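Recall that a protein's primary structure is simply its ordered list of amino acids. Everything else, from secondary elements to tertiary packing, is in principle encoded there. The following example makes that idea concrete.
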Amino acid sequence: MLRPLSLCFALVLACACMAQAPPSRQLALTIDDVPGAFPGGSNGDINELRAITWRMLEPLRSHKVPAIAFVNEAKLYVPGELDTRIDELRKWRDAGIELGNHGYSHLRFQDAPLSVYEDDAIQGEVITSRLLGEKNEKERFYRYPFNSTGPTREARDAFQQFLHDRGYSIAPFTIEHADYIFNEVYVHAHQSRDSELTQRVRKAYLDHLDVVFDYFEGLSQQMFGRNISQILLIHANDLNSDVLDDMLTDLEKRGYKFVSLQQALEDPAYQSKDDYVGPLGISWLDRWKVARGMKLHIEAEPDPPKWILETYGKLHPAR
């Protein structure tokens, strides 16, 4: 039997351990532009594609992440490589990663007539549906390219009905961190054989992840009084394939438990009304602000470091 002093010490020790352990949080990882996102919108070299596939799937397996990968099937149609690229996509499926529809050609809804956009979605499910059918599975989720959900309220509502009729649910996201910008600078550094810059970009990217999570967790607290089940959007690119193990470790240290997209969507927060219509591919946390009559304050969201933006701008002077 514990004496009173020993009991008090045990209670203090227990409280200290509880204070050190971060609260359990839920995070769904969603990966866009599978089988691979390359600078300039290219389909990439097949060997580069194989490397991205392997380097992303290994940490997903070791960290036991039930991720979902959103496919652009146009990336499969490279002359002489169609079967090989389908095999790379099959590796995602065989690794237990759910596959979703990200449109055939990554078409921006803001710029496309409704009928063209619907056809692009249908074309984007042909091969993926066949691969899933081999396992008696089917696509369940659609992720808007650029997260552009429609140029008008009428087009948005009509396409959502189209998705419903085809058995799709919309895949939202709450957190993204401009990984495509970092990736272009990272690829440039790597191709220039600048190891110092390569490591600098890598560190800046992981540091920025923490800054962005701080911001969106704060926004979640502001809107819901808690940290909701978050949905992170990243891309299947060189940078993420190189840092994914470190990224997942950092997120685990923040107290996150990885869950499927379906599990994350069971959070009541995702029943909130999305009333946004416009050109921006903004977080669903921001979309819910519109429905609540709150100001967006997009300018408050953390940008990548200035030197990253400046280097990216030099790589794309016309943008």
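Residues 195-224 form the longest helix (30 residues). The first strand starts at residue 25 and ends at 34.
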